Amino acid sequence: MNPFNIETYKKKIFKTILKYKLVEKGDKIFVGLSGGKDSGSAFFLLNEYIKKNKIDCEIYPFFIKLGDFIPEEVLNIVKKQAEICEIQLKIYNISDFGIDYEKIAKLNRPICSSCGTIKRYLMNKIPREEGATKLCTGHHGDDFIVFFIKNMIGKNIDWISKFTPLLEGKGKQLSRIRPLFFVGGEDNKNFCDAIGFPYIKEDICPHKFLKQKIDKRREKWYQTINEIEKWQPNFKEYFLEGISLLAEKLCKTSDIPKECEICGEPTNTKICAFCRLFESQKKLTNV
């Protein structure tokens, strides 16, 4: 594999931002931070791109605290990331939305599924209600290759339409931007290490702190695609270009999401996954 080069890495991300028009004049972009290398890299470079090109827009880093069990170290790192970029951090707690993560963890369902449901819901609802035009996440190329393969295996073809650097918003679904679409997780780590940008270096999955069983198969997927990259140079780049082209074609045929009959948030069913999860929590509380 080629040695890491900061300028090559940054040019690739800036090219993605420019080509897919991830940032435009008048934008109000919320960036979801977790304290990790990926969301941290996306935030830092998005902010640098905006300043460098003097784009008249706003950027707001925000953090969703899943519960008091999250170590203070995580929050301190997120605050430090925002401080370095000289932007005020917004902090939200899921308890303000009626969710008790420790109770959710006791439900008879995969904990990773519950966590994903909560995050997807709040990361759309919170920025939109704050007037955001776009949501920026730290999802990177390795993520999307794995997402693509797993959804193909599961025959979830409709989900593939979401795998693109810019996912245009529909209805109450906020537009999403992924500046790191064409770089990998190891690239983000190398970048943060090279510039001394702080991030949580250990596993920050909340399930670890609740002593829940974690599905580690995702790491095996990452190891596999990195192994392929070794004997097939540019495998990831070409694969991602193909995914993006396919996603754009599928996206043209996708429908505007319905609105949940309970909360009014976007969903493909009558009752959204978040409200169903919330109802399960209430039943657990009443037992």
Largest sheet: 6 strands, mixed
Please identify the structural class as seen in this structure. Answer: alpha/beta
For the record, the CATH class is Alpha Beta
Number of strands: 8
Given as residue ranges, the uncertain stretches (5+ residues, pLDDT < 50) are none
Corresponding CATH architecture: 3-Layer(aba) Sandwich
Describe the structure concisely.
Helices cover 49% and strands 10% of the residues. With 287 residues, the chain is α/β, with parallel strands linked by helices.
Secondary structure elements and pairings:
Layout: H1 6-19, E1 28-33, H2 37-52, E2 58-65, H3 72-84, E3 90-93, H4 101-104, H5 111-129, E4 134-136, H6 141-153, E5 166-167, E6 175-177, H7 185-195, H8 206-209, H9 217-231, H10 235-251, E7 258-259, E8 266-267, H11 273-286
Parallel strand pairs: 1-2, 1-4, 2-3, 4-6
Antiparallel strand pairs: 5-6, 7-8
Description:
The chain is 49% helix and 10% strand. The chain is α/β, with parallel strands linked by helices and 287 residues long. The protein has one domain (6-258): Rossmann fold, CATH 3.40.50. A six-stranded mixed sheet has the order 3-2-1-4-6-5, sandwiched between helices. Strands 7-8 form a two-stranded antiparallel ribbon. Strand 2 (58-65), helix 3 and strand 3 (90-93) form a beta-alpha-beta unit. Helix 2 (37-52) packs across helix 7, helix 6 (141-153) packs across helix 9 (217-231) and helix 6 packs across helix 10 (235-251). The longest helix is centred in the middle third of the chain and has 19 residues, at 111-129.
